[in-house]
Backbone:
């Protein structure tokens, strides 16, 4: 194991987060570490999520950003919209770079947060080997994947994370295979903490980032980030779309601490009585002219996923 | 550190004033507003401050604030240029 030594593997809680304190808006820090005027599209989920990630992480943070929308929205040299150090790195190397940074910082006795903020292409497809390697090494860092279900900044090509039936520029007739289940791949590495979040629930995301950063070891947060130009819906519906994804059960908010699953409030209600899937699908241009067979296949996938997670939470399987 | 290292410095307006991207401008009805702060919470660019004033130099006019306002106090009005 490089650098940091065996102390890292103890996976203990370093500080306690008072969860009750972040249940309202006033508990969120006022400081913005993402300055106004990034070059993100109007209604971008990525900049909304990044605001809350950086608020939770605070100024003593290093961001590692592989090629993704976030590496574009920083702005143009000599200015940058981010008020924390950012390391822009190649697609395949984000987690490897964070591994080195984390070990170097701990060797110098610093407790700087190392956060990888990567898109779904850089996580699910290209960066998955370095992600797997860093989790296996037990690097002390937080990996955040914000998932807009396609390669956004190059013009919406399909990624491994694109769901079944979605039209992208490289799958004009709709994608024929299902979305890769990244969470179960990460779960197989037995990380001390992993969670899913959604940009429509920023306070929930804030809490999860706070909690993740209080735990030593490799942490993972998977954020669903609706994307107006990619999913082809009007810009004002970004938050609505995220809420619909959760309410229909398409996206389930949960946390897994040391392997123990707990499903979060909004998803608990949604899993008991999911909203009609059509509300979610019909609002998006990428699912236009979806054939009934594909639609029912998507519905079955959602139901299977809900059943699997609720069985696991009840301790049945 | 070398003096002429090519570092980007944090600054506002790193991509110019994005207010010019706007087609629809948010107009707040202060009478209807109950200051819940949801608009500021959901603004992707953080252009709504604590007093819930919208910084129109940077607002891109996405309309999330208008869509999420529980009191429908924010109207989106077409920009005249």
Residues:
């Amino acid at each position: 194991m490089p650098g940091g030594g065996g102390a890292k593997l103890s996976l203990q809680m370093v500080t306690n987060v008072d969860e009750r304190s972040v249940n309202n808006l006033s508990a969120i820090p006022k400081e913005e570490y993402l300055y106004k005027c990034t070059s993100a599209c109007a209604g971008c989920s990525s900049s909304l999520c990044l605001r809350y990630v950086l608020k939770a992480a605070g100024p003593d943070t290093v961001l590692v950003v592989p090629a993704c929308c976030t590496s574009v929205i920083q702005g143009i040299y000599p200015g940058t919209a981010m008020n924390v150090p950012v390391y822009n790195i190649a697609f395949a190397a984000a987690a490897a770079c964070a591994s080195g940074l984390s070990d170097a910082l701990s060797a110098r006795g610093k407790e700087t947060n190392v956060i990888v903020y990567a898109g779904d292409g850089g996580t699910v497809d290209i960066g998955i080997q370095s992600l797997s390697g860093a989790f296996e090494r037990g690097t002390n860092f937080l990996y955040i994947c914000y998932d807009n279900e396609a390669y956004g900044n190059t013009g919406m090509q399909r990624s491994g994370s694109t769901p079944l039936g979605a039209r992208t520029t490289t799958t004009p007739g709709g994608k024929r295979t299902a979305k890769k289940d990244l969470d179960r791949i990460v779960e197989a590495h037995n990380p001390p903490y992993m969670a899913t979040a959604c940009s429509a629930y920023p306070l929930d995301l804030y809490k999860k980032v706070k909690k993740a950063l209080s735990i030593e070891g490799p942490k993972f947060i998977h954020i669903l980030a609706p994307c107006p130009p990619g999913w082809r819906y009007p810009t004002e519906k970004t938050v609505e779309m995220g809420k619909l994804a959760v309410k229909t059960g398409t996206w389930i908010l949960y946390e897994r601490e040391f392997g123990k699953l707990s499903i979060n409030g909004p998803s608990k209600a949604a899993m008991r009585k999911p909203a009609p899937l059509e509300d979610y699908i019909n609002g998006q241009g990428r699912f236009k002219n979806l054939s009934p067979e594909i639609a029912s296949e998507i519905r079955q996938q959602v139901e299977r996923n809900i059943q699997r997670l609720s069985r696991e939470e009840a301790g049945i399987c | 550190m070398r003096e002429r290292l090519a570092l980007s410095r944090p600054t506002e307006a790193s991509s110019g004033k994005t207010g010019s991207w706007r087609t629809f401008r948010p107009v707040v009805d202060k009478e209807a507003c109950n200051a819940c702060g949801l608009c500021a919470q959901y603004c992707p660019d953080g252009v709504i401050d604590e007093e819930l004033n919208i910084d129109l130099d940077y607002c891109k006019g996405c309309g999330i604030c208008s869509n999420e306002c529980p009191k429908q106090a924010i109207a989106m009005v077409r920009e005249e240029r």
In short: The first strand of chain B starts at residue 9 and ends at 10. The two ends of chain B are 47 Å apart (CA to CA).
